[in-house]
Amino acid sequence: MTTSAELKGQVAVVTGSSSGIGRATALALAAAGADMVVHAAHNREAAEAIAKQIRELGQEALVVLADFRQDKQLDELAQRAWNWRGSLDILVNNAGADVLIGNAGKATFEEKLSRLWQIDALGSIRLSKSIGRRMQRRGRGAIVNISWDQAEIGMAGQTGELFATTKGAITAFTRSLAKSLAPQVRVNCVAPGWIKTAWGQSASAAWQERAKNESLLCRWGTPEDVAHAIRFLASPQASFITGQLIAINGGRA
User: According to the model, what pLDDT value does residue 208 have?
Assistant: First the structure.
């Protein structure tokens, strides 16, 4: 992993950072010099493993568990993350519900929608407003949210309907929050396309081909591809970028 110092002295929190895109993002920000608040809903062992890797990069790490379906735990995450170093410079709202694999994949449409809305949408909104107001009072900060590259154009089927609803809300919220918190805090959104996280690794041959065919670069994206974009948006190099949606999808074919 390439290291640099563009985030030296800064403190970041990445929600859902025990695996996938969140894990890659936490490591990318740490490699850029940021001390990290590592969040997981329940998996302390995985979160502690990421914290260990962050410390090996020379940065400090705090692990906080919080279930985004519990408002009290979400508020406690915001408080602990802020109090750890007396402030936060970067918030990445990555936590998301898994409704595609395992028992969650067998739930009804309504059950999946409720879970996604509670965790992906309301959780990100609540945390953004809580930490964003503190950043604004402090006079600086950067927030990066996670949307979906097909949220605005739509995708047929139950999965498309679920994610267009929840991730589309995040996109719209990002644009409004950027105006609410300007000029002190920058708020942007990345929209990943086909990224090979846990679902992608076990997807059928048909989905494997579809993912490649819908990218101009003819491949799946990786969690690191998304993490690099987030690292840029959180850095001083992006100081004139706010209220934007950036697709990380290899170009849509």
Answer: 86
pTM (global) more than 0.70: yes
Q: How far apart are CA 166 and CA 147, in angstroms?
A: 8
> How many structural domains are present in the chain?
1
CA–CA separation, 147 vs 63, rounded Å? 25
Asked if residue 67 belongs to a domain, the reply is: yes
CATH of residue 79's domain is 3.40.50.720
Residues in the chain: 253
Q: From residue 161, how far is each of 93, 102, 108, 111, 156 by CA, in Å?
A: 21, 20, 13, 13, 7
Given a cut of 50, the residues of the chain with pLDDT beneath it are none
| Structural domain that includes position 25 | 11-248
Give one DSSP letter per residue of 143-196, joined into a string.
EEEE--TTTTT--SSHHHHHHHHHHHHHHHHHHHHHHHHTTTEEEEEEEE-SB-
